[in-house]
Amino acid sequence: MENKKEKQNKKTTNNTFLSSPHISDARIHKERDEIMWYMYYEGIFCLVLFLVILVYYPAKPPTSPCVSAVAERDEYWSGLWSLRK
Q1: Which residues of 50-78 are buried (b: 16+ CB within 10 A; e: fewer)?
Q2: Three-state DSSP class for 1?
Q3: C-alpha torsion sign, points 44, 49, 55, 60
Q4: Is 32 left (phi over 0), alpha (psi -120 to 50) or beta?
Q5: Which one of 1, 14, 20, 81 has the lowest number of neighbouring Cβ atoms within 10 Å?
Q6: What is the DSSP letter of 75?
């Protein structure tokens, strides 16, 4: 178990950090605003990039990706029915 002096020492250390002259409400507010603006910019950038991709992206590729993609396909059910025989 910790004695009373160690507990008091921990409280003093924590309070000293929180009441540091380098950390003020104005600084916290300013940094929070800067982080929010950064997040807004990043979100807008991602949205614009997404819209550009949607507009640019074609429905089909200009050429087929492989030879088998051009080949005519058999009907699934008729092929399955022929396997039954």
Answers
A1: eeeeeeeeeeeeeeeeeeeeeeeeeeeee
A2: coil
A3: negative
A4: alpha
A5: 1
A6: P
Tokens in use for 36? 């929010």
pTM of the model: 0.49
Q: Could you give the maximum distance between any two Cα atoms of the chain, in Å?
A: 90
pLDDT tens digits along 23-75? 888 999 999 999 999 999 999 999 999 999 999 888 887 888 888 777 887 78
Q: pLDDT at position 5, please?
A: 64
In order, the DSSP letters of 6-74 are HHHHHHHHHHHHHT-TT--HHHHHHHHHHHHHHHHHHHHHHHHHHHHHHHH--SS-SS-SSGGGTSPPP
Residue 76 pLDDT > 70: yes
